[in-house]
Amino acid sequence: MIKILIADDHAIVREGLKQILAETPDMIVADEASNGQEVIAKVEKSDFDVVLLDISMPGRNGIEVLKQLKADRPRVSVLILSMYSEEQYAMRALRAGASGYLTKESAPDELIDAIRRVSQGRKYISPSVAEKLAVNLEPGTDKAPHEILSDREYQVMCMIASGKTIKEIGDELKLSVKTISTYRSRILEKLDLRNNAALTHYAIQNRLVE
In the chain, which segments carry CATH 3.40.50.2300? Predict the structure, then answer.
């Protein structure tokens, strides 16, 4: 029996996942969590085979939680389930220790297949992510400028590029407007961009936003 912890801040998403997994005889949803701190606390207290982790949660984001989980419990398999496209976060999640990355648009059969695979200690990635990994391994491959951003800077960049205001981003991430403004300044400096319009253009050009 594969013991699963579902971590998502939306109750409706957790319920939907529980319904899908309830029909799968070799899996059991042992617990659920609605924020990063809860995930870390529950994984410390109980043994899970797979953590289904949403990348976008209030407070600490999924990548930060993932890194903490892998530091505390290296053997736990973490499958990222995200509304963001693979172009945005898959590579970062895999580098941070995720066993796989799925978008929330994936079919239930694909989710079940992914859970089974990562529970056996294997990786689950789509053909497009596999291709990106192969390209990155080629000698002499130059990193894109956004690769130098920290995980939080990268998250803020994607949110700005998708049209969210500094205040909206602060509310969603539970951070102050001043902190988000500081991140924005750092991002513009690192990418050598002048303003939000240039940042949005860069993100669209690099397929980081839809």
Answer: 2-136
Q: Which CATH class is domain 2-136?
A: alpha beta
Q: What is the mean pLDDT of each run of 10 residues along the chain (210 residues)?
A: 94 94 94 93 94 84 88 92 77 89 88 95 82 65 79 91 93 91 94 93 84
- What's the residue count for the chain? 210
Distances (CA, A) of 201 to 141, 158, 167, 190: 23, 11, 21, 15
Give residue 190's identity as a one-letter amino acid code. K
Burial of 54 (0-12, 13-18, 19+ CB in 10 A): buried
Phi, psi dihedral angles at 59 (to 5 degrees): 75, -120
Q: Where are the alpha helices (DSSP H) in the chain?
A: 11-22, 36-45, 62-72, 86-95, 108-119, 127-137, 151-161, 166-173, 177-191, 196-205
Output the CATH code of domain 145-205: 1.10.10.10
Question: Do 10 and 32 contact (CB within 8 A), yes or no?
Answer: no
CB 27 within 8 A of CB 112: yes
What is the structure's pLDDT at 138? 63
pLDDT value of residue 141? 56
User: Which residues of the chain does CATH 1.10.10.10 include?
Assistant: 145-205
